[in-house]
Amino acid sequence: xxxxxxxxxxxxxxxxxxxxxxxxxxxxxxxxxxxxxxxxxxxxxxxxxxxxxxxxxxxxxxxxxxxxxxxxxxxxxxxxxxxxxxxxxxxxxxxxxxxxxxxxxxxxxxxxxxxxxxxxxxxxxxxxxxxxxxxxxxxxxxxxxxxxxx
Length: 150
Known about the structure:
This protein has a single domain, classed as Ribose 5-phosphate Isomerase B, Chain: A (3-Layer(aba) Sandwich), CATH 3.40.1400. About 50% of the residues lie in helices and about 15% in strands. It contains 6 helices and 5 strands. The protein has a 5-stranded parallel sheet with strand order 2-1-3-5-4, sandwiched between helices. The longest helix has 16 residues, at about 130-145.
């Protein structure tokens, strides 16, 4: 599986740890930046990861900033993206099982790294259930069709 990952300066250290963690598990990781702790604007990297997932360059993505809020909002502005801000493993499991989330977001300033890695593992181990949840995800897609410009 190909995973696009991106962060701002606040999430840089976690991005590097998560990237190594995923590579050790056999994932192909596409690093969309940032590449240092120098101050940058998180929307750039949220969009870069989202574009990689939306275009099919990556199967799923991970975005990280200080809280995970701004970068997840940015990623969700790209058509076809369902970025889920998760602060625990249960949220990550439900984001995949019920919402077919294709991008995981979290905050480096609000989670310990061990918790973050646990969330990452659950996100990638959990499959979408479909069934009644498929109908709801399709409703989300219908909202996109009505509100996103081509």
